[in-house]
Write a sequence for this structure.
């Protein structure tokens, strides 16, 4: 019996011996070439509505970024910008929360989110970030409203400025926790790049907030300052996007980006949402601020920010559905201990 | 297996009540809270009868998913789902040692060499990603070291579904809750062996205390190696494929004879929760840097 050759067992190739049953016979960067189970998905895709959840992630970033920029604007005596930022930040607690509850499959039990706090669950972390953000952001917006109604009183202004600080801190969480939420799953496209995705989402959030606030400004130094912030954020986003795509390729997940969702991500989020406004803003700033170009760039940033979130969800679904992608991702060379640790910039 | 001495106490064909610690008679293990229980699924003796699927559906009152033929060998269940907590996979091997594709080998090694069958189930991971992802606490570790969704708490956020590296947890869109194998939590509480393991006619599914099962499995691998099945290995025991990336061990583990992927199992799954901190830190650092840039830009506006 012992001379039975292992090669009698394999379907197409020689079957593996343990523990190299999982060994990497596949080349770097390639998809899984071995057997699949009738081509059936190995993973289940997230049961999220991509437009609803993507919409929330976009609003969370826009609101979080607005809270940050409004706190900074107030510090630098840009009072109109600060006011608009505080009001804009209310999008996530209001409309955003409604989208979140709407996407639950048992929405009448939304309050069960408040039963616990769990550090391993970014959705739980996010619940409490959103709660804190709603509290302080709502306070800042309410006090701003009071200050506008009672300009002769100084305390509402000061109190609004004080409430803005914790709101900005929570806003930083709002603009990034959603990336951690996606990364902390087994969906290959999200899990492959925890850091780059978070940098991308965070930069896009600041860019979206700067764009929205820029749209509310008259042409002038404030708008130029906001547009400069957008340029910096877009540059960071572009760098993170290129890092993300390189890592996705290294992890063998890039097959998931070849479909229509991937195309939408490249054209909508990277092309129209990042590169185009970056160019427009640079052109506009070179001219000392061109209102038309600035406005066009701002709308492109906002549209691109939404597209980034929705297409990230969509490509993730594709990566979960393709066994060639999920099996490749779940190979030993993608294990944290199997990978040479790279300590570079946060964008990696 | 030998008959337990206590079986002599129950000779009537009709019993007046439940047998106390029935699991001791059927699985040779007394179920005690605080200990670790699981399944050892030995695929080399699975005959693909699907008694486990049926027993699971009956005990847990689960409806049929899809009544039809898939064309994938005898597998018409397809995958684990909200309504199917056991799933028997069938892998037909059409290429033999001496044959062209599509021709079955006439010379087989022992034990399932031409036709693999595996009864898949929730792995009840030690560091369960679904549990770690659950924001409501609906998913919890029981006193038997198993992972269960509390149906009265789950609000159907669906986050456990992409969290699972094995594609086990599923959301039922009719009731809006997440469902998966409970390792028969209710039966364990009553001292009963889980329905699938009890119904398995070949003991391919073995229920028991985890250390005991793991030792039994190691022995079985050795035995198979001795019998010429050099490809036999364990999936989901500590350090083995399936129990990678900080998942710990799997309370429901398997003995396989082909690549994990052939059975629709991942070779090296990871623990998603380990990605939370790096992701958050990188994102917050980027936002902090951009906030400083904004402060500078606002300050120098002209």
């Amino acid at each position: 019996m012992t001379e039975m050759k292992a090669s009698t067992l394999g379907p197409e190739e020689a079957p593996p011996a343990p523990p190299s049953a999982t060994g990497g016979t596949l080349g770097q960067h390639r998809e899984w070439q071995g057997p699949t189970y009738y081509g059936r998905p190995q993973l289940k895709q997230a049961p999220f509505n991509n437009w609803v959840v993507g919409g929330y992630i976009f609003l969370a970033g826009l609101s979080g970024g607005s809270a940050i920029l409004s706190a900074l604007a107030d510090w630098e005596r840009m009072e109109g910008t600060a006011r608009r930022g505080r009001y804009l930040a209310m999008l996530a607690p209001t409309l955003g929360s409604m989208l979140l509850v709407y996407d639950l499959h048992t929405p009448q039990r939304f309050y069960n989110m408040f039963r616990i706090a769990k550090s391993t669950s970014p959705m739980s972390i996010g619940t409490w970030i959103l709660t804190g953000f709603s509290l302080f952001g709502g306070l800042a917006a309410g006090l701003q409203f009071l200050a506008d109604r009672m300009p002769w009183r100084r305390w509402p202004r000061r109190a609004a400025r004080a409430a803005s600080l914790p709101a900005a801190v929570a806003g930083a969480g709002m603009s990034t926790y959603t990336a951690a939420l996606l990364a902390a799953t087994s969906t290959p496209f999200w899990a492959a790049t925890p850091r780059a995705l978070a940098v991308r989402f965070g930069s896009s959030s600041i860019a979206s907030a700067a764009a929205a606030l820029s749209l509310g400004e008259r042409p002038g130094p404030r708008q130029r300052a906001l547009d400069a912030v957008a340029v910096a954020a877009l540059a960071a986003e572009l760098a993170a996007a290129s890092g993300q795509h390189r890592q996705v390729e290294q992890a063998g997940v890039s097959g998931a980006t070849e479909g229509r969702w991937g195309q939408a991500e490249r054209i909508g989020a990277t092309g129209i949402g990042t590169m185009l406004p970056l160019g427009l803003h640079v052109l506009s700033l070179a001219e000392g601020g061109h209102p038309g170009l600035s406005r066009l760039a701002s709308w492109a940033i906002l549209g691109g920010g939404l597209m980034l979130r929705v297409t990230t969800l969509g490509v993730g679904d594709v990566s979960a559905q393709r066994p060639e992608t999920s099996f490749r991702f779940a190979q030993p060379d993608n294990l944290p201990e199997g990978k040479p640790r790279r300590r570079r910039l946060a964008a990696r | 297996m030998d008959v337990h001495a206590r079986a002599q106490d129950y000779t009537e064909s009709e019993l007046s009540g439940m047998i106390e610690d029935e699991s001791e008679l059927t699985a040779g293990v007394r179920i005690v809270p605080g200990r670790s229980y699981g399944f050892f699924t030995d695929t080399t003796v699975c005959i693909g009868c699907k008694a486990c699927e049926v027993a699971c559906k009956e005990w847990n009152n689960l409806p049929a998913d899809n009544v039809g033929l898939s064309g994938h060998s005898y597998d018409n269940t397809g995958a684990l789902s909200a309504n199917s907590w056991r799933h028997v996979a069938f892998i037909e091997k059409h290429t033999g040692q001496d044959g062209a594709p599509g021709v079955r080998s006439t010379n087989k090694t022992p034990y399932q060499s031409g036709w693999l069958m595996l009864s898949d189930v929730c792995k009840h991971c030690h560091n369960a990603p679904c549990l770690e992802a659950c924001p409501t606490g609906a998913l919890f570790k029981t006193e038997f070291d198993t992972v269960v969704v509390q149906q009265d708490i789950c609000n159907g956020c669906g986050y456990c579904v992409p969290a699972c590296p094995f594609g086990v947890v599923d959301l039922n869109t009719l009731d809006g809750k997440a469902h998966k194998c409970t390792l028969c939590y209710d039966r364990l509480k009553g001292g009963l062996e889980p329905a699938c393991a009890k119904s398995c006619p070949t003991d391919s599914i073995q229920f028991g205390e985890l250390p005991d099962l793991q030792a039994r499995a190691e022995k079985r691998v050795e035995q198979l190696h001795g019998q010429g099945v050099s490809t036999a290995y364990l999936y989901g025991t500590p350090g083995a494929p399936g129990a990678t990336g900080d998942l710990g061990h799997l309370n429901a583990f398997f003995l396989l004879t082909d690549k994990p992927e052939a059975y629709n199992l991942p070779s090296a799954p990871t623990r998603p929760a380990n990605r939370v901190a790096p992701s958050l830190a990188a994102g917050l650092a980027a936002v902090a840097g951009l906030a400083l840039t904004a402060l500078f830009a606002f300050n120098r506006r002209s």
Chain A touches chain B through 115 residues (CB under 8 Å).
